[in-house]
Amino acid sequence: MGKMIQNNEEYNEYKEEIKSNLRKSFTVSDLEYICKYIHIDGAYNIALALGRTKNSVVKMYTQLKKENTDTFFRNLNIFW
After folding, report:
1. From the centroid of its chain, how far is CA 13?
2. DSSP letter at 7?
């Protein structure tokens, strides 16, 4: 499993990283990573890796799935 937040210091670092990514668009690399590994790592661990919230990762994956572009990003093989 991925890294779990153990104490307040780690939480504050994570919180600052999330604040820096607020309202930023997902990159193609982010989308490829989400589509490939959401079923393996889970939304929480992907959110930690990308410095996003779990909710934003789930929302983006759901949107990609509705638009049928999740398989495109899963098979892209440029970054991951």
Report:
1. 17
2. S
Contact (CB, 8 A) for 80 and 33: yes
User: Can you give the residue ranges of every domain in the chain?
Assistant: 25-80
- What integer pLDDT is reported at residue 1 of this predicted model? 42
Give phi and psi for 46, each to the nearest 5: -65, -40
> What tens digit of pLDDT does each residue of 33-63 get?
999 999 999 999 999 889 888 999 999 999 9
**Mean pLDDT score of the chain, rounded to an integer?**
85
Q: What percentage of the chain has pLDDT greater than the value 70?
A: 76
> Which two tokens mark 29?
């690399």
Dihedral angle over CA of 12, 80, 26, 18, nearest 10: 0
Quote the DSSP letter at residue 14: H
How many Å apart are CA 73 and CA 48, to the nearest integer? 20
